[in-house]
Automatic annotation (TrEMBL):
This is Uncharacterized protein.
């Protein structure tokens, strides 16, 4: 994430069903598996650095971290910790 001068990086929990993936290309099974295993080891904790994106109304557009997002869905999590820039 590139943070422009004067911007602030915010983090927060987002409902998984309020997230849209910016990139919908195919994902490597091994990358999703690695994210799944990492989340499995963390239990109810969230990984850092967290997935990043931006807000479009009430929807969070995930730009980086789609493997983490899919892993959270697979594990039945309701929320995911994300980061975004605000001016």
């Amino acid at each position: 994430m590139a943070v422009p001068p004067g911007a602030v990086v915010r983090t927060g929990y987002v409902d998984l069903f309020a997230v849209r993936l910016a990139c919908r290309e195919r994902m490597a099974v091994g990358d999703v598996k690695a994210a799944f295993e990492r989340r499995l080891q963390l239990g109810d904790h969230q990984p850092w650095p967290c997935p990043r994106g931006h807000w479009e109304g009430d929807t969070f557009v995930l730009v980086d971290g789609r493997h983490e997002y899919v892993a959270a869905l697979m594990l039945g999590h309701e929320h995911i910790l994300v980061a975004w820039c605000e001016r």
